Amino acid sequence: MARIPTAPIKGARDFLPRDLAPRNRVFQLMRETFERYGYEPLETPAIEHSSVLEGKYGEEGERLLFRVLKNGRDLESAAGELLGRGAEADRSAGALARALSESALRYDLTVPLARVIAARQNEIVMPFRRYQMQPVWRGDRPQRGRYREFFQCDVDCVGSRAMTVDAEMVAIHYEVYSRLGFQTFVTQVSHRGLLDALMESCGVAPELRTPARTQIDKFDKIGADGVRAELLRVGLSERVTDALLDTLSVSGAPLDILETLAPRLRGTEQGETSMRELREVFGFIRELGVPQERYELRLSMVRGSDYYTGTIYETVLPGSGLGTLGAGGRYDKLVGMFLGRDIPAVGISFGIERMLVAMADAGLLLGDVITTTQALVTLFDAATTPASIALAQALRAAGVRTEVYPEPKGLGPQLAFGSNKGIPLAFIIGPDEAARGEVKLRDLRTRQEVSVPQAAAPAEALTRLE
Predict the structure, then answer these.
(1) Degrees to nearest 5, angle at CA 272 with 271 and 273
(2) 130: which of 149, 411, 413, 449 lies 20 to 30 Å off by Cα?
(3) Which CATH superfamily is domain 375-464 in?
């Protein structure tokens, strides 16, 4: 008999309670931040129709979709139909996958949001601010901080073209990463139309702009020299390549960069639109109180998803080697793919898995709680068990998350159990304490122990847990 595997599938993970405690605290901090800005929760199904997801993420994204096979007779029928076409059938892996499936696990949270807007437009008040915190799936190559099943935490505003909400995305990124303790993060800002306008001004032929954009996106991996070689390889001349790289190397404060580029883009509709919108965004970012060192204009930024139409964002932690911790942008035409008319939208996503890796690397998780339980009530013997249970109920009523050891067992093993779980406080009621109406409170973090009246135990616990 084949041995049943006990490890999760590649790219997925089990989470023990000590893993979930810091994750849930991060989720809670993010949820509080999103709601403080007026965003409301939304959830969508894990499985979407394939047609909902296809054609939204580019060629690479299409390849990474986790497709769900039809089952039973539907699967047999689809396979028979495909094979019955004989030599004329398209036998590629992609064609086979499409033929044998009609649904897929969601790849991100943005496309499902667009579907919801189209389906429930009469029930939604615009502008609609929503946040969503759910798992997504991608058939990617697992590596540090990158998994096949992982959580995304998204914030989106649908129904407004105002650049105030674009700037709000940067402010929310800033607040979340600051509250988590990061010290060196930077949110890079650009505009989908700006790079295209710059390529036009440098003489890049229209048919070469898509392959050129793909190579420019490799700046962080292969550097300027590598990008230059790749641009020449895809067909740009040396003159055009040098002009483009010289333009993309312009640096300085965001508004200064835009001022430098203005003469090159004057008279082009795409260039002037992107410049105007970026000026507004950076002005509102300043009004929102984001420090200047926490954002920058990055001319070479390319977001991979095909649905972006305007401002785009990436937040990075320089020197971490983790890539982007969060990203997003404006996608004014995505809802229109479902609805038949465009509705403006902008949003950002937080890479929770990479964030937690970065927090661990920076020591930001040290000393964090590793259990949700705050107090352990021990059981001394059968005679004192009712008093211990009553104490546990009083602690719970006061808001202290309390666990009762299930049976009278030596005090040492019970306290060791609490320490091993990371429970901060333990309460002990033996015959002597019961006779005096007291309880021993032991702080398992410091090993200090005090006696307090049983009635005062909840208040004392809350004080020590502050």
Answers:
(1) 90
(2) 149
(3) Anticodon-binding domain (3.40.50.800)
